[in-house]
Specification:
Elements (H helix, E strand, L loop, with lengths): L5 H8 L9 H9 L6 H9 L7 H14 L7 E5 L5 E5 L1 H10 L3 E10 L6 E10 L6 E6 H4 L4 H5 L1 H17 L1 H4 L5 H4 L1
Antiparallel strand pairs: 1-2, 3-4, 4-5
């Protein structure tokens, strides 16, 4: 008896019919601008978008496509109390959008401590845009943002620095980031 290679066996079997794609999944693929596949929609439905209705998933993918961001790594969303969708970008996604404008020059983020102590009270972010004469400077204060959530308990300095930077990026790049928030601002 001769051995049959895997390629030969697959060739003899012929094409395998793919499972039909539901209309909802197809609409989600179309909402993404064709940037993701039906299989990826199903992964999103089972994982990071598990709490989304199909309409919320379609909205999420539409916003990601319009912003030009990766729905798997740069963006996040969660259903809001009105049945809509709260959409945001991780700080890396906000930086990426700012850089894609071709106007991003630099950023600097610093921690603000209570005078003569090591007590963290806030952060200051400076973002320089090429076409602006002056940099944008934004501050964020622990008293305004720390709500005692897990991330804030474990990494307070990281969280407040992300908030300050997100505010500065949004102010410097309103066309790209208007209405988009970093998750730390929402927790």
């Amino acid at each position: 008896m001769s051995e049959v290679t895997l390629a030969e066996a697959l060739a003899k079997r012929g094409p395998v019919a793919e499972a039909p794609v539901s209309e909802d999944v197809q609409l989600a693929v179309e909402a993404s601008g064709g940037s993701i596949t039906a299989a990826q929609v199903k992964v999103l439905q089972r994982t990071i978008c598990a709490k989304f209705s199909i309409e919320q998933l379609q909205l999420y993918l539409t916003i990601c496509a319009r912003k030009g961001v990766d729905p798997f790594s740069e963006a996040y969303g969660f259903p809001n109390s009105e049945g809509g969708l709260a959409f945001g970008l991780r700080i890396d996604g906000m930086r990426a959008l700012a850089m894609r404008t071709g106007e991003y020059e630099s950023r600097h983020v610093e921690t603000i401590l209570k005078p003569d102590t090591t007590e963290l009270v806030g952060a200051r972010a400076t973002v320089k845009r090429k076409s602006m004469a002056l940099p944008v400077v934004e501050e964020a204060w622990m008293a305004e943002y720390d709500r005692g959530e897990m991330g804030w308990k474990q990494f307070p300095e990281t969280m407040i620095r992300k908030v300050a930077e997100a505010k500065a990026l949004r102010a410097a790049f309103p066309d790209a980031l208007s209405g988009v928030y970093e998750k730390s601002e929402m927790e």
